[in-house]
Amino acid sequence: MGHGSRRQEANDDVRDVAQKIAEIGGFELVEPAFLEIEQPDVAAGFKRLVERGALQVTVHPYFLSPGRHTRGDLPRQVGDVAASFPGVRYEITEPLSAHPLVIEASIERIRESERRSVLGPQASSPALPIHASRWSSAGEDACGPSTEGIVYLVGAGPGDPGLLTVRGRRLLATCDVVVYDYLVDPDILRLAPTNAERIYAGKIGGGRSTSQQEINRLMIRHAREGKRVVRLKGGDPFLFGRGSEEAETLHEAGVRFEIVPGVSSALAVPAYAGIPVTHRGAASSVAIVSAVQARDGSVALDQLAKVSSADTIVILMGVAHLREVAAYLIECGRDMNTPVAVIRWGTYEAQQTVVSTLESIANDVAAAGLRSPAVIIVGDVVRLRERLRWFEKDLLDQVGVERLLAV
């Protein structure tokens, strides 16, 4: 199981490796498959194995991220597919990238490179790696050494590591502990010192989860030990990120903290899809709403009712309830032909966008196989995508474009 890339040579590598695994391992039934973009996907690969007689399927993540993909996306997708084959058992191996033998092989490859090197002596004062630097500015000592522990609630942005703020990068470069969420890109974690402790604290529906109480306990314990803790949260910590709840807990525990805002997916993801949330003559108001109630995960219809008249509505955490959300907005008075866009994995290479109308969006998203994480944009600004799209210029909308232009 590879990730899937727009670069064909990367996908071909996965296919070549699958063939070598079959040959060298002596396995009769091996199928390459992909999580995103490329085919065959999880469902097709699983089905091919079953059709060839497999009664037990082992899914092997080939250099997928140990966090987000192997702890969340892959188990969900495989579980959904396996439900159609009740007589077939399956298991998912630990990610290859974390295996000790891979680490040993990497070290050996580095040493081979050193032995082949024909470079002269290194400069006496080589440049410090990013994690060893100490950023500073006038009147600011928060990045310097401190014997008193502190927690920084840092927004990691929507996904693209380039959208991390300069302040967030500085704090990561000098921290002792990083407590990070499911949606944080692994490349951002590499900005932390190599000796910093990295603690995964993702909370994924249907997958492995860390309770909010345990996250609070981890932050408080490490801060009381005098450590500099970066609590790294996707998007902005104060926009549906429980950042304020964590800050309250830290305050009550007498632990110093600082809030570092991040670029929210509510704004960045539409922008990467070529959709401005406001536009002169088209939208002068925008509402950002969560589609689910925090207390029980039910659909937040009362919140949708309050914002239904906004020119642009940005809906987070709503894909699982898309059909109900769309129907309710029509009930609240929105035209059934109102343009809608659903953007999955916004700002990532794997970004996918489905454009349709309120009447048809649920069916079109289901046909395209889009799941969370995704952002939903409702309003006439979605029409601007055809002129303003820049990040996905080499891709066509999967469904709905012709119908949208017709209305």
Question: Which properties best describe this structure?
Answer:
single chain, 407 residues, alpha/beta, Cobalt-precorrin-4 Transmethylase, domain 1, Methyltransferase, Cobalt-precorrin-4 Transmethylase, Domain 2, 3 domains, five-stranded mixed sheet, 15% strand, disordered C terminus
What does this structure look like?
The chain has helices at residues 8-25, 42-51, 68-82, 100-116, 166-173, 186-189, 212-224, 243-252, 265-272, 301-307, 322-331, 361-368, 385-388, 401-406; strands spanning 56-59, 89-92, 150-155, 177-180, 197-200, 228-233, 256-260, 286-290, 312-316, 339-344, 352-357, 374-378. It has 407 residues and is an alpha/beta fold. It has a five-stranded parallel β-sheet with strand order 5-4-6-3-7, sandwiched between helices. It has a five-stranded mixed β-sheet with strand order 8-9-12-10-11, with helices on both faces. Helix 2 (42-51) crosses helix 3. The two termini are 41 Å apart.
Q: How much helix is in the residues?
A: 25-40%
The CATH architecture of the largest domain comes to 2-Layer Sandwich
| CATH superfamily annotation of the largest domain | Tetrapyrrole methylase, C-terminal domain
Q: What is the global morphology?
A: globular
Domains (count): 3
Overall SS class: alpha/beta
Strand percent estimate: 5-15%
Round the mean pLDDT to the nearest integer and report it. Answer: 84
Number of helices: 14
| Largest pleated sheet | 5 strands, parallel
CATH topology of the largest domain: Methyltransferase, Cobalt-precorrin-4 Transmethylase, Domain 2
Spatial strand sequence of the major β-sheet: 5-4-6-3-7
Radius of gyration: 23 Å
The ordered string of helix (H) and strand (E) elements is: HHEHEHEHEHEHEHEHEHEHEEHEHH
Low-confidence stretches: 118-146, 394-405
Distance between the termini: 41 Å
